[in-house]
Design goal:
Clc chloride channel, mainly alpha, 18 helices
């Protein structure tokens, strides 16, 4: 393989089931048969002049920063208007959880019903009248152009519905905006196809970095998930675009990090728990990934989506009238868990309700990311498991310390991005460097179990079925038949 091959990636065409990071436009709205990446031109004969490459690198960072900042400000504005809090400022000290809690149960329900109507009619119109959506991964792998208008409409619908209480994530929208703008700039300036694909990937990282104030995570996401390379030239461009986007976003969003995390100590007990929780997080994260993929694969794209999204969001609205922590991507419950304010009973309840809400909205056809929802599921799962450890061994470890370790491992598996997950949680929380050790230990164990289960070839669901029904197989026609067991000769 030539050293200048920027994009030849081992993961293209891999056999494992697609995860959310394989679906940068969630659920790969228009499923496409997997195809190998386009062959690259000669690195000598077809190379972008350096001034053009530098120019587009700067433009990608700036456009990703402006796009991410604009989407985040729009999100806050809609949250304040619909739930009626902090109407004097777009960015305020009152967070979304406090605003939703202060709103009446009737208002919460009506806002979610409104979100269902917007989601249904909006995505029906996108699928009916828009050009076929192209995921970021497909654009990076094959060079397919992302349609500007349809992609922007798709991203705006995600932001509006999440602001109004959709339980899905908002992180895909800024990645899409960053990528589509980077691709447009690259083609206008005249970059080679390979460098255009590089900029599309870096645009996604820039958007992620801008909206969450995570410059290193944005670059690592590009290198680990989209390009699967650490070539120096690519690393420099990915870091540059993410840093520029982050600094641009500071203008409107400030430079605060996402979650407040107390200075918990790292103890021997926490290290042992991290090693034990890894396999559990591996199984749970893979199950969550397969469940969300199953739900997305059955979502309607025709006019039926209007009724299904209305029903799903009305269900979420009813639950929200009772549980104000439910609406949104899950940032509120994550903060409660990290600060140690979440107790096991409410955490288990919230975990179940969050899963129901996410799956219902995905089945209905709503779109959005799974990064923060997955992080919330991992955090809520870690609370009772950490409390159980304390009850058995009387260790007195703060629950928030369990949460950051378990949530990192769960996110790594559910999104299949272990390095990005670790870096992301460190930038999200500004946790002390000592926490890297238990986080890495838990993530390594979780990924080992995940790869082992995925390597079975049937996924977690298939493995469970084969264990429960060992004699049931499928014949060539896809019909169930009973495997004949070999006869044992009697002596």
């Amino acid at each position: 393989m030539p050293d200048d091959d920027l994009y030849k990636r081992e993961g293209l065409g891999r056999a494992h089931p697609p995860t959310d990071t394989d679906r940068d436009i969630p659920s790969d709205v228009a499923p496409v048969a997997s195809a190998p990446a386009k062959p690259l031109a000669s690195p000598v004969a077809d190379r972008t002049p350096l001034p053009r490459l530098v120019l587009v690198t700067l433009l990608t960072g700036v456009s990703g920063g402006i796009g991410g900042m604009g989407l985040a400000l729009l999100l806050h504005f809609i949250q304040h208007i619909t739930f009626g809090y902090s109407l004097h400022a777009v960015i305020s000290d009152e967070n979304f959880l406090a605003g939703v809690t202060a709103a009446s149960p009737q208002r919460r329900f009506l806002v979610l019903v409104g979100a269902g109507l917007i989601a249904g009619f909006g995505w029906w119109a996108v699928h009916r009248f828009g050009r076929p959506l192209v995921s970021i991964k497909k654009s990076v792998a094959e060079g397919t152009v992302m349609p500007m208008g349809t992609t922007i409409a798709h991203a705006l619908l995600q932001i509006v519905t999440v602001a109004m209480g959709s339980p899905l994530g908002r992180e895909v929208a800024p990645r899409e905006i960053g990528s589509v703008l980077a691709g447009w700039c690259s083609r206008r300036v005249g970059l080679t196809p390979d460098d255009t694909r590089l900029m599309v990937a870096c645009g996604a990282g820039a958007g992620l970095a801008a909206v969450y104030n995570v410059p290193l995570s944005g670059a690592v996401f590009v290198l680990e998930v989209l390009l699967m390379t650490v070539r120096p030239q690519v690393v420099v461009i990915a870091l540059t675009t993410s840093v520029i986007a982050t600094v641009i976003a500071w203008i409107g969003l400030g430079d605060d990090w996402q979650y407040q995390f107390p200075a918990y100590p790292v103890s021997t007990g926490l290290m042992i728990w991290a090693c034990l929780i890894g396999p559990i997080a591996g199984v749970a994260g893979l199950g969550y990934s397969e469940l969300t993929a199953w739900a997305r694969g059955r979502a309607p794209k025709n006019a039926r989506i209007i009724l299904t999204t209305l029903a799903a969001f009305a269900l979420v609205g009813l639950l929200t009238a009772w549980l104000p922590q439910l609406p949104g991507n899950g940032k509120g419950p994550i903060q409660l868990a990290l600060s140690g304010a979440e107790t096991p009973g409410p955490a288990v309840l919230m975990l179940g309700v969050k899963l129901v809400a996410v799956i219902a909205c995905l089945l209905a056809g709503a779109e959005g990311g799974l990064l923060t929802p997955g992080l919330a599921v991992g955090a809520l799962l870690s609370v009772p498991l950490g409390e159980l450890w304390n009850a058995v061994f009387h260790s007195g470890i703060p629950l928030g310390a369990f949460v950051i370790v378990g949530a990192t491992a769960f996110l790594a598996v559910s999104m299949r991005m272990p390095v990005t997950a670790i870096v992301l949680l460190m930038e999200f929380t500004r946790a002390g460097q000592d926490f890297l050790i238990p986080m890495i230990a838990a993530t390594a164990g979780a990924m080992a179990v995940r790869e082992g289960l995925a390597g079975h070839g049937q996924g977690l669901a298939g493995l469970i079925k084969s264990c429960l029904f060992p004699r049931t197989v499928l014949n060539s026609a896809g019909m169930t038949q009973i495997k004949t067991l070999p006869q044992v000769k009697q002596p």
